[in-house]
Design brief:
about 425 residues; alpha+beta; two-stranded antiparallel ribbon; 15 helices; about 15% strand; elongated; disordered C terminus
């Protein structure tokens, strides 16, 4: 509401509002040079062509849903005073290029001609024409010059002085000139908005040969994090699967625990949806933490089920009713510890969800998947894992029984 109100009041012709917190603005500027959530960099060799391309991109991006403002840097509009020294005329008066340039730099830019000493302090003595002379093109043309031969002349006798247009600032990256377009996004997630913008730019903006477009800003961080997560997440899941196999010495039980992970994440997804959070790197970190806790829930539940069944097996109680009773006993033993675990985790995460201090936005998106997952993950481990374990053991026992009967029939019919 505050941003909408400021947008309504602050309207400057030719400018677009980008509301960025100062600390984040400085961090983004140091990291990528872009002070908006998304930046488009156009690189090439000619400034006029780059200026035309950035203008086309600005006009194309304004119609993309979620883009609140798009502003291209103006690469033209600077005004410069050019002094073009005529070599033949300067040589006629016995002067070279350096002689004329020294006069111009001293009169317009200023030159230190001496130093004054006041006690322990030293101050330079600078000579420079007053501003009212330096700001006038006609007075600069009449700048007096004395040659080594004693000839008295003015600057216009040996140089052409005129005002020319040029870029107010030059940007370069990788030894190529570049122009930037600043884009602000509101009410939409960063990835889908950038994907739509890339599609629009590829369809409506034609790039000449030798020119390229790159996307930067916070989107650049998102792309880097996504590339790393594509490697880290599968590798982490593989490590968990190997550790589960080394723990249970059975591949089916390890796969059972891994199969519960996607279903345990449902609560986190629903809570993100209800809170209106977009999936971000912080949310991905929260889901990774939730997957670890869910795997722990499944492991502990499966260990209790195995212990309960092993105790009955040692007593010779191996019927289906005994298996069902062992699973009930093992599952019931885990109700109170799971309830305590969930209560402790929620007690630690709720203050984060209610916090409003510095960094609370990031922490809330890390904690939200954990809070939502603490509803589905325990229920899954207490209801689904015992049922799946019952099906696995019952199927295995029935197969073993059929194999034993078949072996007995062959043995009796052989004699």
């Amino acid at each position: 509401k505050l941003v909408d109100e400021m947008d309504r009041i602050v309207k400057v012709p030719g400018l677009a509002n980008i509301w960025v917190p100062p600390i984040r603005n400085r961090i983004d500027m140091l990291a990528t040079g872009i002070k908006s959530p998304v930046g488009v960099k156009v690189a090439g060799t000619d400034l006029a062509t780059i200026d035309r391309i950035t203008g086309d991109i600005e006009r194309a991006l304004k119609d993309v849903p979620g883009v609140s403002s798009a502003l291209a840097e103006r690469l033209a509009g600077g005004r410069y005073v050019d002094v073009n020294i005529r070599r033949d005329d300067a040589a006629r008066f016995g002067m070279n290029i350096a002689d004329v340039q020294s006069v111009i730099s001293a009169a317009v830019g200023g030159d230190n001609v001496g130093e004054t000493v006041e006690g322990l302090q030293r101050f330079p003595i600078s000579v420079r024409y007053p501003r009212e002379i330096r700001d006038s093109l006609e007075k600069i043309r009449k700048l007096p010059i004395v040659s080594e031969r004693g000839a008295r002349l003015v600057l216009s006798d040996v140089a052409d002085v005129r005002v020319t247009d040029g870029p107010p600032m030059l940007r370069s990256e990788n030894a190529r000139l570049s122009g930037w377009v600043y884009v602000d996004i509101r009410g939409r997630d960063l990835r889908s908005a950038v994907q739509d913008m890339q599609k629009v730019v590829s369809e409506k903006v034609a790039l000449p040969a030798g020119y390229s477009v790159s996307w930067s800003g916070q989107f650049e961080f998102l792309e880097r994090a996504t590339a790393k997560l594509k490697v880290v997440v599968p590798f982490t899941l593989l490590i968990i699967l190997v550790l589960l196999y080394l723990t249970f010495k059975r591949l089916d039980e390890a796969v059972l625990i891994m199969a519960t992970l996607p279903f345990a994440l449902v609560g986190g997804i629903w809570l993100l949806y209800l809170l209106g959070y977009n999936l971000s790197v912080a949310g991905a970190v929260g889901f990774i933490a939730l997957a670890g806790v869910s795997a722990e829930f499944g492991v502990i539940m499966l260990l209790y089920l195995k212990h309960a069944w092993d105790e009955r097996a040692t007593q010779g109680m191996t019927s289906n009713e005994d298996l069902l009773e062992a699973i009930r006993e093992g599952a019931v033993l885990r109700v109170r510890p799971k309830a305590m675990t969930v209560a402790v985790i929620l007690a630690g995460l709720f203050p984060i969800m209610w916090g409003t201090g510095t960094g609370s936005e990031v922490m809330q998106r890390i904690a939200a998947p954990m809070v939502g997952g603490m509803i589905t993950a325990p229920l899954l481990s207490m209801f689904v894992v015992p049922a799946a374990y019952l099906l696995m053991r019952r199927t295995g026992r029935q197969a073993n029984t059929r194999g034993a009967k078949g072996f007995g029939a062959v043995a009796t019919s052989a004699p």
